[in-house]
TrEMBL record:
This is Williams-Beuren syndrome chromosomal region 27 protein. It comes from the Eukaryota. The gene is WBSCR27_4.
Amino acid sequence: MSSDGRTVNDVMSFVKTCQGADSQRRMKFYDGWAETYEQDHSILNYRAPDHAVDFLMENFSGPPEEVQVLDVACGSGLVAKLVSPIGEK
């Protein structure tokens, strides 16, 4: 349960309200979800960004400090947030 009392079931029920929505309704849904998007993904234990970074690091042949990742229009930039400390000197 989150600090505001939301549970996995609460978040899943909320996300299901967007199923089958047309593109305009889907855009409104995500605009409204923006405020709690990252918190809700944490509640759901969303691990895709972590897996993406693990994959990048396992398959990048150069030094980690040379990693350049463009994380554009892919959610809230969670991959970039996870990768950025790797390249810091």
